[in-house]
Design brief:
Layout (H helix, E strand, L loop, with lengths): L1 H20 L6 E12 L5 E14 L2 E14 L2 E16 L4 E12 L4 E17 L3 E16 L12 E15 L5 E12 L3 E14 L2 E12 L9 E12 L1
Antiparallel strand pairs: 1-2, 1-12, 2-3, 3-4, 4-5, 5-6, 6-7, 7-8, 8-9, 9-10, 10-11, 11-12
Length: 245
């Protein structure tokens, strides 16, 4: 886990350095966030998180890539390890309506599902679109492939792979409640015949200096059908430094 923390720190420094070097505004925008905690003594406990988000906008198109890595260990034994990546392209019909195509991939070592991938297309509507409030709602359909985790037991529960049609519902909400602080909420649901996965991410950000902010986040992930011996719900609380570019 310590090696993961160092690797994430190096990646964050590299991306942030590139962002600082970019002075001219253009079609590119994004953010990078890094959080790290370490303690020593009776226990050796470390955790690390890296979030990366980059978007390229040339109207009517917007293309966005997001990635997240999180890990934690105690006494050199991993207690959490998860990775997430997603790509979304949007095409604006007008100020309020758009079509989207998205690819989402999740890998969670300690979840009921080792890997999950979703490919979806759909329709989005901007319900609110002002400097203070932004609210987008989406509905779509597509294809999913999921692999459940193997449970050592006893009894041994082997991993299983499933695939098929999937539907998606989701949305994101932003409230800029002051010049220097904001609240952001996303909720996405992917449902298939054998399992429904949903993820909620809540984050409050406050500017520190320039483009650097302090953020506190809370994530909830849940699968409705999981192997015996695993929990349906996982939660994560994070404190990170965010740099926007």
């Amino acid at each position: 886990m310590r090696n993961l923390a160092y690797a994430l720190l190096a990646m964050a420094c590299s991306v942030t350095g590139t962002a600082f070097a970019e002075d001219e505004q253009g079609p590119w925008s994004g953010s990078v966030a890094f959080g790290y905690l370490s303690s020593s003594g009776n226990t050796d406990d470390t955790s690390a998180e890296l979030d990366f988000d980059v978007a390229y906008t040339v109207k009517p198109w917007t293309h966005e890539f997001k990635a997240r890595a999180y890990g934690a260990s105690k006494d050199n034994d991993a207690t959490a390890e998860a990775y997430k990546a997603g790509w979304k392209s949007k095409y604006d019909f007008n100020e309020f309506d758009y079509a989207f195509g998205a690819l989402d991939w999740n890998k969670d070592r300690f979840s009921g599902y080792e890997r999950q991938s979703f490919a979806t297309v759909g329709y989005g509507r901007r319900i609110l679109n002002s400097d203070e409030f932004v609210l987008n709602l989406e509905v779509g359909a597509g294809y999913t492939k999921q692999r459940s985790a193997e449970i050592a037991g006893p009894p041994l529960v082997p991993a299983e792979s499933t695939d098929g049609a999937a539907g998606t519902l989701g949305g994101d909400f932003t409230w800029n409640f002051s010049e220097n602080a904001s609240f952001h909420q996303t909720l996405y649901i992917f449902t298939a015949s054998d399992n429904t996965f949903w993820e909620s991410v809540s984050k409050v950000k406050a500017s520190l200096i320039g483009s650097l902010s302090l953020a506190v986040g809370y994530t909830v992930k849940q699968n409705t059908d999981v192997p015996v011996g695993t929990e349906k719900k996982d939660t994560l609380t994070s404190i990170t430094l965010d740099y926007s570019f």
